[in-house]
Amino acid sequence: MAARPTLLSNARFWLTPVALVTTLSAQSWQRSLEAALDHAKEKNRVLFVAVVMPGERGSDAVIDHYKDSGVRKIAAQCSSLRIDVGTARPSADEREVLQRYLGAAPRDPIVVPHHVIVHPDGKTVLSSAGYQMTAGQMEWFIADGIRLFDKTFEWPLGDRARAPEGLRYGDVKTTEREVTPPPSKADVKEAIAELKKGGAGWQGSIKHYTTLLRSEQSTAIKYVKAQLTGVRGGFMAGMAIGTIAEISPVVWSSVLVDYLDNRDDSRREDAARGLTKMAHKKTNKAIKKQLKAEKEPEVIAWLLRASAATAPADKATITALEKALKKSKEANVRMHAAVAAGTLEDKAAAFRLMRRALADADPDVRSAAAYAMAIRRDAELAVALEPAVEGENDAEAKHWLELALATLRKKRDLREFENFRTKVLKETRARNAGRGAGLGGGRGGGQGGGN
Q: Which burial class, exposed, middle or buried, applies to 408 when counting CB atoms under 10 A from its CB (0-12, 13-18, 19+)?
């Protein structure tokens, strides 16, 4: 994934000792890198390395997945090492993990959460996945990583399993962006005091608001909500919504939900985009309610993405996507419906809807279907892509279809789709002062569009 601009603090953080609070099945997290390497060598198993920051949105989500039964079962086939980052000075063991598996020197920023599959030799990185993923994606990632080492390995994966969008094969350099630990109560209190005092200037205000938006404390949320409903609320709304989508804990999703029925089309779209990134299942009810009432195509497109991100196995979500692909006259709506279909945890429905989109009259919709298939990485989708490539007459669409097919066959990552995401899907649109320049940036721990 290409680097995103960020106004997060440049302060680096140190890795803490390995966390031992959670186990994977009967097998515990190994207590040290040395123990993990010895175990991997002795059992001839791959090493599964998890680097997380408790309190950070994406990390908290994947930490919950470590308790999932499917994840625990597949992870028991590995030697597993978890490293928590964010508070203490690094030990030699921790520095070795950074340098050896994340390609980062001790003072370099790192992307969290981050997961790496390492060959039993302890040196060769087989695959990695940065940022947040679902439990099904984690299960897929571990099974795929084991198969990279052992071609004979077989593991039954359920409907929810699909590849993480941030999947990379081989060595990884992970200095795209950094995150910092959540602010303390004292930090929040100081930020509010400075904002009330005024006189900090634009940059100072950005710093203080960013502190609040990274906190899950009720005082921070209450203060920002008051500002959004005040005289400056209209001016701040776009900036706040964009930043919440990127860096805020899930408790801030209530602010985004409040904007779903805003009279301003752009604010509703911003909220839908933000809820897609946040992927918080408790917001799905509000998303579906607005989807039924929404008339603006650009907003509908992102409400469909948000619905799939927050309820990927929900029948109502599947029905909404099918309706959009069948009846919407707007190519952009059908495009995003196709991408959303690729994130479903009902495999049969996902395949059916992607194939429908692959036969759409609009080349951009066909391209979106190919992109969705590339994201999923289900090898059986090549059967649908092969004849579509042969029959495609639009040069640009043919390029994306060929790239999707190559992704499925040759285990390439999705960086080559970056232009499609930005230019066609417009997943990262340019912002101006009227629509909100943003108080912070970079990708948060979220999936970046539900993937």
A: buried
Written as one letter, the residue type at 356 is R
Distances (CA, A) of 316 to 285, 308, 323, 349, 411: 10, 10, 10, 12, 33
Kindly report the CA angle at 132 between 129 and 136, in degrees rounded to 5?
80
pTM of the complete model beyond 0.90:
no
Burial class (CB in 10 A: 0-12, 13-18, 19+), 9: middle
- Alpha-carbon distance of 252 to 57, in angstroms, equals 11
d(CA 205, CA 191): 9
Q: How far is CA 440 from CA 189, 246, 368, in A?
A: 20, 8, 29
Look-up: residue for tokens 């030990």?
A: 91
What pLDDT digit, counting tens, does each position of 317-373 carry?
Answer: 999 999 999 999 999 999 999 999 999 999 999 999 999 999 999 999 999 999 999
Polymer length of the chain: 451
CA angle 21, 25, 31 (to 5 degrees): 45
From the CB of residue 230, how many other CB atoms can be counted at a distance below 10 Å?
Answer: 10
Predicted local confidence at residue 13, as pLDDT = 37
Q: Torsion over CA of 395, 397, 398 and 404, rounded to 10 degrees?
A: 150
Q: For residues 62 and 228, what is the distance between their CA atoms, to the nearest angstrom?
A: 31
